[in-house]
């Protein structure tokens, strides 16, 4: 199948709760298919108040049981609109099985801030077999 891009925008409220309430950015593939993650880019849509705490934003599968596959340590400390790719922690072409979703979390509370974050997941959906 063709390469696809899924865009998800997290509100400021969702960002402030990322440590305790991860957000799904790509649902699990339908039965009989897998998703191959080719890359992730995110864009901080700066509003008027910068986030005050340096946190890592982490992308992972299966509620963290399979580990972090992409991470970024600086996207929340920007006082301007910023777009950049997340760095791969493992193989950038991570394959997600039918039951695996891709989620995002933060390793600490970014505190304050009122910007949104748009996440772009570049992936391919492939038929098994």
How would you portray this structure in words?
The protein has 129 residues and is mainly beta. It has one domain: Jelly Rolls. Helix content is 4%, strand content 47%. The chain has one helix and ten strands. The strands form two sheets. Strands 1, 3, 6, 8 and 10 form a five-stranded antiparallel beta sheet that branches. A five-stranded antiparallel beta sheet has the order 2-9-4-5-7, with no helix packed on it. A hairpin with a 6-residue loop joins β4 and β5 (68-72). The longest helix has 5 residues, at 12-16. It is elongated and about 50 Å long. The mean pLDDT is 81.
Short description:
The chain has a single domain (3-127), classed as Jelly Rolls. It is mainly β.
List key phrases describing it.
129 residues; Jelly Rolls; 5-stranded antiparallel sheet; 1 helix
């Amino acid at each position: 199948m063709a390469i696809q891009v899924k865009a998800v925008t997290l509100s400021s409220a969702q960002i402030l709760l990322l440590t305790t309430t991860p957000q799904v950015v790509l649902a699990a593939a339908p039965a009989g298919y897998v998703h191959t993650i080719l890359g992730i880019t995110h864009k901080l849509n700066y509003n008027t108040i910068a986030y005050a705490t340096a946190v890592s934003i982490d992308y992972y599968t299966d509620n963290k049981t399979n580990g972090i596959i992409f991470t970024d340590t600086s996207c929340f400390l920007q006082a301007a609109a910023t777009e950049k790719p997340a760095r791969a922690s493992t193989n950038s072409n991570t394959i997600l099985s039918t039951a695996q979703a891709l989620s995002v979390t933060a390793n600490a509370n970014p505190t304050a801030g009122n910007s949104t974050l748009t996440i772009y997941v570049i992936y391919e959906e492939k038929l098994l077999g």
